[in-house]
Amino acid sequence: MTKVPVQFTLNGREQNEFVDSGSTLLAALRDKLGLYGTKAGCHQGTCGACTVIIDGSPQLSCLTLAERCAGKSVTTLEGLTGNGALHPLQQAFMEGFAAQCGFCTPGMILAAKSLLDRNPSPSRDDVIDAISGNICRCTGYDPIINAILTAAEQLRGARKSA
Ligand code: FES
Ligand code: FES
Predict the structure, then answer these.
(1) What is the CA(46)–ligand 1 centre distance, in A?
(2) Please, what is the Cα angle at 80 between 43 and 85, to 5 degrees?
(3) What is residue 46's predicted lDDT score, i.e. its pLDDT?
(4) Sequence spans of domains, the chain
(5) Measured from the CB, is residue 111 less than 6 Å from ligand 1?
(6) Distance 135 CA to ligand 2 centre (A)
């Protein structure tokens, strides 16, 4: 298989990789870079488990060619923790029992982060809309929605006191 060079930013760091032409970002993250936070579910764009943030917007890494990420900024779950501390979204998911089996959780958190980066004060409907492409088979969604709203509140508070 032809290898192609790809230079991109991954979780804030410059990354230079050779990837198989036609391979997905999901495969590059998990199989090449060992970043297993990005979950592989359906591989066909329907479950949302593989959601990452590319240049600020949530994208399905199973439908994204790795070579198309050249020059872009990619954020995965591993990019959220700073100095070992959980991101407020991770904290809120943990405290609000918003993760059960946890398979959907990374995708949910990244879809939510992208929303909160764009809209720090989302309504409940905004949150529902933002995670509408992410399927959860365990929680019934309410704990997830509540956790995202809790994290939004905490982030707003942190910004005010900064
Ligand atoms: S693995 Fe990408 S949407 Fe399901
Ligand atoms: S917590 Fe199991 S799929 Fe969402």
Answers:
(1) 6
(2) 135
(3) 98
(4) 3-79, 88-161
(5) no
(6) 8
100's tokens = 């059960």
57, exposed or middle or buried, with CB in 10 Å at 0-12, 13-18, 19+?
exposed
Give the number of the ligand closest to the Cα of residue 103.
2
88-161 has which CATH code? 1.10.150.120
Express each pLDDT in 86-145 by its tens digit: 999 999 999 999 999 999 999 999 999 999 999 999 999 999 999 999 999 999 999 999
| Predicted pLDDT at 161 | 80
CATH classification (class only), 3-79: alpha beta
Cα–chain-centroid distance for residue 117? Answer: 12
Residues 36-43 have a mean pLDDT of: 97
